[in-house]
Design goal:
homodimer, Rossmann fold, 10 helices, methenyltetrahydrofolate cyclohydrolase activity (chains A, B), multifunctional enzyme (chains A, B), purine biosynthesis (chains A, B), histidine biosynthesis (chains A, B)
Chain lengths: ~290, ~290
């Protein structure tokens, strides 16, 4: 079997065009330009790179972008004040708290200071709870991107057995909720799972989000499984691989995301979609 | 095999004594008596019965209890005003919105009006999200009671495969989060699951919460499985059975909750425990 490539670059391009058009319609209808703010504490090179990529994404679809950069020595009160200010500013629709924060700062405290309606990363407990309860919510971007890929390639979920490897608050757990809401039978496994290969072998859909290069191999997969790989593991200078062993898995799966070029490129588009959604909800309330 | 009886009446009695003592200590330390309010809209006989049982439970452990009874024709504004009043009253620590509400009223709107810190039923999205994210939370009583039974009988969970049948917001989904937090491998199945018997057969722990009499049979179970039955199905006047077929399942399981007398009696104790927890958290903030 040669697997269908679930191509995140193709989907990201389609979504970019779609979001640009929706943003233009939104502006024509309400007068608002969707506006995203990143609150960042200085001193992390990877964050600098990521924030630039968010800026480019925003500019690419006609959104406003602003960076609120705080000094590396910033204290919790200053950080939360910056988040609250953006939360209360009616011209801002989406807020990202750039992670990781330096060790003197509490991420939970920072997230709690966020207006859940502007929480376009889907990190606030209120959004996690609304997602769990099936209410409208801002959903974390990475798992939302995985779902968008499954939909793009018309992969049905109802009654299928989905196996999620990993239980983080930003990928594994929200992905599990999304798959369950689409009527998949849902298994979450993790580092404490006794018989990982056996559990993975039951998955019609297998999603890996643990950060271990090549953890999921073709031998573990049910022939014909659909594989979503959320891993980003730098195994050598400039060489990034996923949590799934591509070589073996792509021979057994019926469809699979590559790394790079799979779930990754869709993530930023989901951030833009959340920002537009937040802007629409806020405009309805205004 | 003859299964160990997971006896909810025994546990409820132990918890009652424990909570009484903790409430007395709390009063001695802070001067506060834990105080629960039920906001009820008149006109449902089953609710009347349930509210009386809550009152008795409160009285049995020395908590204060008050009923805010609204007329059957009550509108949403009046209901939410009653909930907000209790939410803002510093002498009240726990609030229950008695469900079901009459059809002119929105349960989501009512729950949204609740202070999450007094949400002793664990219904508010913020509590569902805090539970999902592993933060301190007020957890729905029915699944919390199931966990208390597993702990009472020292049933280990880490690395075990737990299968939850049912995905409601009040039992199945929060139970899944609780089992996952205790490092079980977790499967949720439901009405759309293709091969229910096969999935149930993998469970070292099987929890049924769907409301279908006898859905889970002994033939489906892995020999030695631990079975939690959350079903309450009235099959004849005064005769209540669970979602698990007791006759066959109790011969295959290593441990099992009876219905009645299993998970049921523990539920009200979890409500009291939540109320005491809420009172303690609110006292720390005061």
């Amino acid at each position: 079997m040669t697997a269908l490539l679930l191509d995140g670059r193709v989907l990201a391009k389609e979504l970019k065009a779609q979001i640009s058009q929706q943003a233009a319609e939104f502006k024509a209808r309400t007068g608002y330009v969707p506006q995203l703010v990143v609150v960042q504490v200085a001193g992390n090179a990877a964050s600098d790179w990521y924030v630039r990529s968010i800026r480019r994404s925003c500019e690419g679809v006609g959104f406003g972008f602003a960076l609120h950069l705080l000094p590396e020595t910033c204290d919790q009160t200053t950080l939360e004040a910056a988040i609250q200010q953006a939360s209360n500013d009616p011209s801002i629709h989406g807020i990202i708290i750039q992670m990781p924060l330096p060790s003197q700062l509490s991420a939970d405290g920072a997230v709690a200071a966020l207006n859940p309606q502007k929480d376009v990363d889907g990190l606030h407990p209120t959004n996690a709870g609304r997602l769990a309860q099936g209410l409208p919510a801002l959903v974390p971007n990475t798992p939302a991107g995985g779902m968008a890929l499954l939909d793009r390639y018309q992969i049905s979920l109802a009654g299928k057995h989905a196996v999620v490897v990993g239980r983080s608050n930003v990928v594994g757990k929200p992905l599990a909720q999304l798959l369950l809401a689409r009527h998949a039978t849902l298994t979450i496994c993790h580092s404490r799972t006794a018989n990982l290969a056996e559990v993975i072998g039951q998955g019609d859909i297998v999603a890996a989000a643990v950060g271990k290069a090549g953890l999921v191999t073709g031998a573990m997969l049910k022939p014909g499984a659909v594989v979503l790989d959320f891993g980003i593991n730098e195994v050598a200078e400039g060489q990034v691989v996923g949590d799934v062993d591509w070589e073996s898995a792509s021979k057994v799966a019926s469809a699979i995301t590559p790394v790079p070029g799979g779930t990754g490129p869709v993530t930023n588009m989901m951030l833009l979609q959340n920002t537009l959604q937040a802007a629409q909800w806020l405009a309805e309330q205004a």
